[in-house]
Amino acid sequence: xxxxxPKRPALPEQLVTHPAQLAACxxxxxxxxxxxxxxxxxxxDAYRPELCLVQVSSxxxxxxxxxxxxxxxxxxxxxxxxxxxxxxVHAGREDVRLCHFExxxxxxxxxxxxxxxxxxxxxxxxxxxxxxxxxxxxxMQKGETLTDWRKRxxxxxxxxxxxxDVRYLLPAHKKLTDRLTKRKxxxxxxxxxxxxxxxxxxSDTNVERWRKVKGIGALDRRGLxxxxxxxxxxxxxxxxxxxxxxxxxxxDLLIEIARRAPARxxxxxxxxxxPRNQEEAILxxxxxxxxxxxxxxxxxxxxxxxxxxxxxxxxxxxxxxNDFCGRHKLAANLVASGADLKxxxxxxxxxxxxxxxxxxxxxxxxxxxxxxxxxxxxETAIRVADPKSLDxxxxxxxxxEGDDDExxxxxxxxxxxxxxxxxxxxxxxxxxxxxxxTSAAAPPESR
Length: 447
What we know:
This protein is of the alpha/beta class. It has 3 domains: 13-201, Ribonuclease H-like superfamily/Ribonuclease H (Nucleotidyltransferase, domain 5); 209-296, DNA polymerase, domain 1, CATH 1.10.150; 308-433, HRDC domain (DNA polymerase, domain 1, Orthogonal Bundle). 44% of the residues lie in helices and 10% in strands. Helix 9 crosses helix 11, helix 9 packs antiparallel against helix 13 (279-291) and helix 14 crosses helix 16 (338-350). The protein is flat. It starts with 12 loop residues before the first strand and ends in a 25-residue tail after the last strand.
């Protein structure tokens, strides 16, 4: 008989709409070493998303906090800043960013169930409903994705949706932690969680976002300088009035202003969509770009196409990577991108250091990169072992070539070449390069 699905987790539910209720909620959560965390927000018409709801779960209760009516959330954010408390999220980039926006710091100890799922061989990225179904055999009703969370009062359907968004986070954390522990990948997961938090809140000055503007490839260096300056003005102005930058001025107008290089307000006013009363600020940005010495203007980005042999080898590495990840229960697209594989090929072809990519750091560099390099250096080869198998490929270890200066004997010359030795990946639990020793310290997730 088919197994019955487990019962839906039934926990007390509290809609927090008053400061006194919030104080009681925070007091309860302060005793919890593990909390589920989610948010609802509206970000389409603001520079920064507007926080509309906070959902939290502990092992004993579910809370939906209304920030519009319950006062300051400072005490709640402090809970997330405690490194001894694990904050469980699903695809938590925006939740982490909102915590950072609202409190100045991200959560200190994040466990993202979407990332953890990829590290134990589940689909990546997997949606929350899919993860709950595949991992916990529960079905969720997701009907409020496009709702306007600013409107009050909340409907019963909205409240139910909000509770369900954190109802399953702690059970998912438990199952995924067990699987990570079994495969000795808790340290891998911590690396990934920390990198994801850093990326979510980073303002990397090395990332030139203005280069993403469509049409920029047709501009010369002076035009690029104009786009860079006007883009910077637009971003600062949008933040000041809390509107999305493209609502302030469209991207195509940045290109048109760079092409025309206007000198007077009348020149700008002839363009539809330029914000009124901001002409002088825009002209000042254009003047700054015009005043730059030629050698300080940004250079156009080169977009050389990869040689066919690089593409071929990168595709071959992709085959090896997918085979490796299938055998070892990893999501291949979490491990490396196509651009990462091309960087590995480029490094090998030109005998230069590998660029700073995910494959060159942490657990990927220890457990995955050597497998790819062994193929590129000719230490291993790949063959089809069994077309009917779910793992049809096999890596074989090649015999090292003999000394060319040594004359071959008659027996050697008449003999057939040696058969390559199969090099099937060992079980993950026994391979020191594919596991992490976590006996030295208890993971914070298990507290």
